[in-house]
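Notes from the 1:1 (GR / supervisor)

We went over the backlog. Supervisor wanted to see one worked example end to end before approving the batch request, so GR pasted a single chain during the call. The sequence is below; no edits were made to it. Supervisor asked that the structure be written out right there so they could see what the output format looks like.
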Amino acid sequence: MNNILLLGWLLTLELNLISANIYMHSPRGSNNRINENTATRKNNNRLFDSQNNARGGYNVGDDQATKSTNENQQYRMKFYQSGIKGDSNLRIQWTNQHGCGNDDPNDPMKLNCNLVLQFKCQDDTSNRAPKDSYTLRNGQLINSQDYTNQPKNENTAALLKRRNSNVHADRGLHETWEWYNACYNRERNKGLFTADQNLQKNNLGVDAAVATRQNPNKQRSGYECPEERDYYPYWHPTPWTDVAVLAHNSSICSYYQENSFNKKAKGECVELYTSKKRKHFSQANNPAACAAAEGEWVEYHSMLELATKFTTQNQCDRANNPRLASRGIVYKWGKPYDEAKIVNSLPIVDACFVIPPPVDCKVAQYSRVNHLGDGVDGTPNNYTWKLPHFPSLEQKRCVFRMRYNISTDDYAPFDTDASQNQVKQGKIVVQQAPVQQNPLVNIDANNQVLRLAINTAQFGRTFQDRSHVFFISPRPAEVADERKLINLNVRGKRGNIVQTYPAVEYDFVPKEMSIKDTDLVHIQWTGSNTHNNKAPGGDGQTGDAGEGTGGTDRHNLLELLDASQNFPRPIETASLYKSMNVVYNSINDKKYDTKNVAIQLASSGYYRCAKNADCGKYSIETKAALNPTIDGASPSYAGLITSFKKGTYHYVCTRNNNFTNRSQKGKLVVR
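Structure output shown during the call:
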């Protein structure tokens, strides 16, 4: 598989002389956290290999005013899908430490990097945390799912017993157990550059895909496949759907677009049990090895979802039309990569499915090296994700991931492959790799020798962050298909700038918006009750400076006269609420007037209205009084969808806006 090197090398040839990290701030990146009350996460390998600082990340959202004790009490953000005509836009926001930008040699800001944005969705079910190996879930415990190494000559019954003993309902799961077990069995791509790293074999004696240059000791992180994690585009089918590649140079975009699994079918070897059921694993990683194993090499397509109402190829083909295609909705007949069937050892036959839109590719935004800060113009680095349209109009549960890669020019990325790995005969090195571990260099100053800080496992490195589980749901009936929908959320966690670092303090996302009066805004936020930031603090400061009960996130939204002020306008004189035309309210279907909508936003949904006659026990007249720092409210608010009249509006969160300490203000321009 030497040819694969050129397809997967670019994104993994990065320079890392010091730690370089990526942290998602919106949607909230977990960095493998779940609900720890400590400044550092407790399990770096809970779901995925981040290689980030242990202090980063945000806890899972709570759906109540106290800490959740099971997954049903967690809050999952709900974003509404794009329509056939109208977009639904979600702002992705992050910081990356070691910089990014164009690699133009004539640019004084030259930096080599790539960022890969992907998501994974599946049909939602009523059970949030079943004891299975397939269903996406956050978990409630900090423990990773278990994995017992596969013994030789394992029969089907023994495999199922092993799987069922490994998988737990109360632990997080992104990739399936079968995905990792297949990775554990499959031979790795031996055409890849591994420098002088000694990659360990699995217990079956196979040089398997669980060991890579960056992970030579085959450390497991959840059920992630290390080879797939470290290389993009991957050469086998993957459960992740591409959204965008923010590349080092626009000239490489055509390559990414052509080789993205969104567009190009990828193959794997399918073997059968003696019962003729489909195996989910094979040692073979290429067609020749597959044939030798008496398997079938099958090319699979990435799918957004199955289109089960079209049962023949003719029906599937006829479902396409130029109008749908212009919106990225295309039906295809073929073999979809169907994880649900793989998990259940079912055959994957030709079927109709919706293919994902083409991957978006553009030059990465510039960010400063060693800074974990904003871009050139002071705006946080971001990408606006047009949420997909699922023609089934069924709710999906999803997770989002970002991978960040920084590259070096110390040797040619496209011309460096396995032929240049270090070669030993016994203990003697007969061929040196282009880079060695912590090499000594002579700078011709009276034979003065200096040592370079190079770890060849990290001289070319991938970092990663992922969201907690969220929903992409069909639009409510009140939200017309053609309306543009923009999500207004919050970021950050409790603490001052030093205590939260490398996470961030509170703010609105987007902080400033410019929209049309026909556009709709979905206001929604989430937070945790366990951001106490206690010891151990790692290499940073502990503590959770802020207002209200320690460890708790809370938000609200009230109008300001302008951005220079800190006192909110009284509801009776405020123009923001009067300009709103609420088309959907998550509290219930009742149409609330301007004053009551303002009360909901001010109390984070704790109150629904002012008068008992309007909403009974949820009214200010009847419900227990909410304290001034809104501790009694939930840290999460499912919100409402509204349009606004033309004008300029400013708003603030009274709980977190603390003059000279932190600002949580937003601006909306409606034209």
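Supervisor's comment: The chain has a mean pLDDT of 93.
Batch request approved.
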